[in-house]
Amino acid sequence: MDRREALQLLMGGAAFQLASPNLFAKLRTARMLLDTQPAPRSLDSHQNATLTAMAELIIPKTETSGATDVGASQFIDLILTEWYIEEERNRFLNGLADVDVRTQALFGKQFVQCSQDQRAKILMALGEQMMEDAYAVRGSVPGYRGSPAVPNKNFYYMMRSLTMTAYYTSEEGSKEPAFQVSPDR
């Protein structure tokens, strides 16, 4: 499986159940590289803090580990650095910067300075935009039928997909029964 195929599977969160064990093995191997990375390479400290806060809202810590506990921001930085081409990385980083533009406009402060409720409002708005983009993609595909279209160029879609990938390829996330890969695949 080449890099493009792996990214397509990463971007389709529902595809986890269809993904081959080889993809999971490659992603788990990529996770091992996290221990060798002294600091983020694609993200500056503010971007990393914003990403961490967003990921924790997407998969919060409950009775199980949250996105922060499994190193989601480190994993996403690794994917941005090692797997994304410059165009994809720039789209992601521009989307991350737009989060602060939105919070400045609405609340007069950066995302990391916002309250949990304010952060949730921003993520809700991003989710609504993601769905609008998905419907726009679906409408542009002649004769399209089936599950919702994939808005690959939408930042929040990228963010959510990468956060879920980070979580479900971690030791803790791989123990979640709904996402375990059966050995016969």
List the helices and strands and how they pair.
Layout (H helix, E strand, L loop, with lengths): L2 H9 L9 H13 L11 H14 L13 H11 L3 H22 L8 H24 L15 H14 L17
Helix pairs in contact: 3-4, 4-7, 5-7
Verbal overview:
By secondary structure, this protein is an all-alpha fold. It has one domain. The chain is 58% helix and 0% strand. The protein starts with a helix and ends in a 17-residue tail after the last helix.
Rg, nearest Å: 16 Å
Q: Cα distance, first to last residue?
A: 15 Å
User: How many strand segments?
Assistant: 0
User: In percent, how much strand structure appears in the residues?
Assistant: under 5%
Number of domains: 1
Order of helix and strand elements from N to C terminus: HHHHHHH
The overall average pLDDT, rounded, is 77
The tally of helices reads: 7
**Computed structural class:** mainly alpha
* Helix content, binned percent: 55-70%
Shape verdict: globular
The major pleated sheet works out as:
none
Segments where pLDDT lies below 50 for 5+ residues? 1-19, 178-185
Summarize the structure.
The protein is mostly helical. It is built from 7 helices and no strands.
Key descriptive features of the protein:
single chain, 185 residues, mainly alpha, 7 helices, 0% strand
